[in-house]
Amino acid sequence: MRIIYLTDHDIDVLDKQTKRDILAHNKSVLVSCPQQTDKATNI
């Protein structure tokens, strides 16, 4: 699994539920695969 990255434009145009779904996905990736996301948290 991979983290989903959003641009400022994405945040502006996506609806609230989609943003919540992406946030939930990214949180589950961080919990499930911490070794693969070390570089993402160190940015």
What letter string, H or E per element, gives the SSE order?
Answer: HHH
Shape: elongated
Calculate Rg over CA atoms. 11 Å
User: What share of the residues lie within helices?
Assistant: 55-70%
Average pLDDT, rounded to a whole number, is 86
Strand content: under 5%
Tally of DSSP helical segments: 3
Q: What is the first-to-last residue Cα distance?
A: 19 Å
Which ranges are low-confidence, i.e. pLDDT below 50, for 5 or more consecutive residues? none
Domain count, please report it. Answer: 1
Which structural class best describes the helix and strand composition?
A: mainly alpha
Q: Main sheet?
A: none
Number of strands: 0
Architecture blueprint of SSEs:
Blueprint: H1 8-13, H2 16-32, H3 38-41
A few lines on this structure:
This protein has 43 residues and is mostly helical.
